[in-house]
Specification:
Blueprint (H helix, E strand, L loop, with lengths): L14 H14 L12 H8 L3 H13 L3 E4 L3 E4 L8 E4 L14 E10 L4 H6 L9 E10 L2 E11 L6 H4 L6 H8 L6 E10 L2 H7 L6 E10 L5 E10 L3 E4 L6
Parallel strand pairs: 3-10
Antiparallel strand pairs: 1-2, 4-5, 5-6, 6-9, 7-8, 8-9
């Protein structure tokens, strides 16, 4: 019988996410089977040494994922069924306005001048040879209240005057670059690789540390070959899929 399960209360990862991750591992290990009733809320709260409020948040997360169902007065029962939580994304095509994401919203976390950009951003903008001022944007993509992706984007400040002061139009880079600056892309480069969530990523995406992520780095160029935007986006690998269509006009 499980006595007390340790969770790291000093971690930036919320306690309820640590609990839901551990419960998922216990389910996967066969500790409970489909149709089984999980231990009571008070028993699980005792095992994890947390309040019942925190424990209920963890159970709600599992219920949203379709792993269990809760019946008032009877408890939580393992269903073993997963609910797909899919975000359709389309890669932009040069010469067209970048398509909007119809099923998710994005929340701007910060928009500011970047005084010391990361090395990979410096390389993208050839910053050491030409250290132009850059602006930095960080956003989180959310669907049905749940984070799906974390977006970091950099822009040459001189090409987007007033961006920090005026902000984004409707929280959208696409709309802002199109309506305010009348920019169209002539070339777009995408690099895609697998990764995992670090501590800060996990905290912002509200996922367990080490969760599978899909990393997409995208460079957007104007007709004069100016790199107008360099973006790095982390998507939760189990919640997203990509839809790529190339048309011959």
């Amino acid at each position: 019988m499980v006595s007390t399960v340790r969770i790291d209360k000093t971690s930036p990862i919320p306690a309820y996410h640590q609990i839901s991750s551990d419960l998922t591992e216990r389910i996967d290990s066969g500790e409970w089977h489909i149709g089984d009733r999980l231990p009571s809320e008070s028993e699980l709260a005792r095992q994890y040494d947390v309040s019942r409020i925190t424990l209920r948040q963890a159970l709600s997360d599992l219920e949203e994922r379709g792993l269990l169902t809760r019946i008032q007065g009877k408890g939580a029962f393992l269903t073993g069924q997963t609910k797909p939580f899919v975000e359709e994304l389309s890669f932009p095509i040069p010469g067209r306005t970048r398509p909007e994401k119809k099923h998710s919203e994005n929340r701007v976390l910060e928009l500011r001048t970047e005084e010391n950009p990361p090395v990979f951003v410096q390389e993208a903008f050839h910053w050491k040879e030409n250290p132009i001022p850059l602006l930095y944007l960080r956003r989180v993509f959310v669907q049905a209240g749940r984070p799906l992706g974390l977006n970091h984007a950099w822009f040459p400040a001189e090409r987007v005057p007033g961006l920090v002061e005026q902000g984004l139009i409707d929280s959208s880079i696409t709309t802002t670059l199109d309506r305010r600056y009348q920019y169209r892309f002539s070339k777009i480069e995408n690099y895609i690789e697998a990764g995992s969530a670090g501590a800060m990523d996990a905290a912002l995406l509200e996922c367990p540390y080490g969760s599978s992520l899909l990393k997409i780095q995208t460079s957007y160029f104007l007709e004069d070959e100016t790199l107008i935007e360099f973006a790095s986006t982390l998507w939760l690998g189990n919640l997203t899929r990509f839809h790529l269509v190339i048309e011959d006009e």
